[in-house]
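Predict the 3D structure for this chain.
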Amino acid sequence: MTARIESVDAFPCANIAPLFILYVGCSMKLSMPRFDQAPVLVVGDVMLDRYWHGGTSRISPEAPVPVVKVEQIEDRPGGAANVALNIAALGAPASLVGVTGDDEAADSLTNSLRGAGVRALFQRIAHQPTIVKLRVMSRHQQLLRIDFEEPFATDALALSDQVDALLEGIKVLVLSDYGKGALKNHQVLIQAAKARGIPVLADPKGKDFSVYRGASLITPNLSEFEAIVGGCVDEHDLVSKGASLMADLDLGALLVTRGEHGMTLLRPGHPAMHLPARAREVFDVTGAGDTVISTLAAAIAAGEELPHAVALANLAASIVVGKLGTASISAPELRRAIQREEGSERGVLSLEQLLLAIDDARAHNESIVFTNGCFDILHAGHVTYLEQARAQGDRLIVAINDDASVSRLKGPGRPINSVDRRMAVLAGLGAVDWVISFSEGTPENLLAQVKPDVLVKGGDYSVDQVVGADIVNAYGGKVKVLGLVENSSTTAIVDKIRQTNDAAR
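Done. Predicted structure below.
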């Protein structure tokens, strides 16, 4: 990881040791965590985000407002429910405890969450409405929001008992606090989790952060943070006041989200880490905070270190703000974004990178084509062949023999070009998605791991003579033989060069 470190020598707050700010660019190495092994429990304020979509073509004669002809009604889980939904969308086992009314909106929430794989347990309170935020939309613009809500008379003891019963096997507890009344006993929940060694992440609300005392991490936005500690004139001031807050509340860490200025992670005894905003285009910030804490929770539950988890959350937030409304990010979306960051969306890959790229491609219903060879001196025949191979599917993998393998196959003096150079040239072709090398005489071991949908070879032999055909046929893949381009041969090119050199002597 490359970064710039800046000393902080003086602070407005007294009795704070000198700190450092670590400015993290795009060089932190990112990888996809094992979210399937990361169970998370979310407790907090659930609500229903309801959207009325329709066209507008005239102004009301009764008032100077547009008339919306409602054509579609859409319900999405919001608040703590959206956090749980985000966690499930990443592929992590998600459970949710919250408070609702006993009404149609609660039924809609239950059905949506169940359909997404979230285990939802609601304390239903009769004669109180489920919190509903109704948005009237037209042409992808929000025209009006109407809130239906009353503070809940939550049975805090019953909710605590419910949470306590669910903590077994949980890797992270998330407190998603919107100040709506579901969370009345923060300390009981925090202490119950800490007693089991479970990290507690809290998305805080209100002007009293003492209720989150002892949490592993809290994630206020800048406005929420400044409401507690006072205005911050610069990053040094933010770091100083954040350090004081962590000390006062015995926090394990503090993540301040700062909109277009990115986010800053503070940890006792560590340099402050600042990650700049990554969003290319901000379309809608609704639910961005939910995305941050859900990605953090799932990544930590999967065993990732906090800086890596924060970097993933920052990347996830950059994706979700480009979507309309309360949205979630899926595992394939995050994986593809990671690949872009790591340069593995195309080009020369390691086996680990290739397998991740293949998983992502298949998540997008893309078929995988595989071919192999030495590709020592790239010529027109190779280019034509690779274009034909690429046409057999959506993604083309080219596996090439390493230098020692080529020497064994072609004899002394070969290869002419080293494996790195051969891979670089192939990676530059438009028809080629991924390039990888192998050391064996044949690519059979690689085929067994990659399991392409189509295995392609060029030549004048039958399909059953293709090396690896039995492997591909065994799992139901296809094997195709493409004709060779006439008068195109690396060996012939090499021979001609040698003859020319001999004649010149």
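The mean pLDDT is 85.
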